[in-house]
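HOLO CASE FILE
Compound: fe (ii) ion
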Amino acid sequence: MATKTLETLFHDTLRDIYYAERKILKSLPKMQRAAQSDELKAAFQKHKEQTEGQIERLQQVFEIIGKPARGKTCDAIEGILAEGEEIMDEYKDSPALDAGLLAAAQAVEHYEITRYGTLKRWATVLKLDDAAKLLDETLQEEARTDEDLTAIADATVNAEALEGAE
Ligand SMILES: [Fe+2]
Ligand SMILES: [Fe+2]
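Model generated. Tokens follow.
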């Protein structure tokens, strides 16, 4: 029987990003410790605080649809974060470490942007306007984080990786 509707898909995808956000929250302090540049460390710290707020927003969305806030294993984020860990190991004490960490963080942001972009649109179609607004707030925050990371890459991190400067 074909019973799965957009509502089902919205709920499943919400659980996917809820799982992902909580994994990201655990991973950001590790990235912060691993980063060499103070600017990158600060960016990871700032985003950790934002991520706490994003998890709260997701809990509000679960409340709006009358479902318990429960995650569902997201293989994509597991893979993206595992690649980040690989960079931490393989580039430890190397000039290109920060460039690799920054790129790993941007892969996370782009995953989040695709999920929140989709969820926001589905919320609108489902006439869940309050949920759409919450999802859009996070979407904007993720997009700004991505831009901030690009700015750090352009300003310092990529050049340091190239020159091997401290
Ligand atoms: Fe996030
Ligand atoms: Fe993020």
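CASE NOTES: The radius of gyration is 17 Å. DSSP finds five helices and no strands in the chain.
CLOSED: yes
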